[in-house]
Amino acid sequence: MRINDAVPKKGSKKRRRRVGRGIAAGQGASCGFGMRGQKSRSGRGTRPGFEGGQMPLYRRIPKLKHFTVINPKHYTTINVGKLASLPANTEVTLESLLETGVVTTNDGPLKLLGDGELNVPLNIKAAAFTSGARQKIEAAGGSWEVIAK
Partners of 126 in the beta sheet? Predict the structure, then answer.
């Protein structure tokens, strides 16, 4: 085999389209781009996804329902009903809950949810509280404090 034997297969190479060379060539004058308008000018027509200034589809879609939040807030959540077994007037933080075994994993800052009954006064320090959790803590005679995450 020699270097002159390495040629493309017959029919695989096509001639380039020579536009603007007269009407006999088939692509004369306007070169197949029509008469006037944005898509007939030199250079690129419009970028992909451009809708003439209207908010394009790829920017409209994420504003609709059922799209996940890009940077969600992750909390270690616990219901106030789980804290009923703790002794009265104890200070409840994420660290103390991990030590006592009420919470087993640290998934982020502590957040108290309002499900369950609480009848023990506790001093709770957490990053976030639901309104139901706040009411139940106060009704039991305890206090709550929001700490920085």
Answer: 146
The pTM assigned to this predicted structure is 0.57
Strand pairing of 123-126 and 91-92? Answer: parallel
C-alpha span between 136 and 85 (Å, rounded) = 15
The residues with which 124 forms a beta bridge, in sequence order, are 92, 144
Domain CATH code at residue 128: 3.100.10.10
Strand partners, 129: 112
- Can you give the length of the chain in residues? 149
Which positions ≥6 away from 78 have C-beta within 8 Å?
A: 97, 102, 103, 110, 111, 112, 113
Encode pLDDT of 52-98 as tens digits.
999 999 999 988 888 888 888 999 999 999 999 999 999 999 999 99
Domain extent, residue 113, equals 74-144
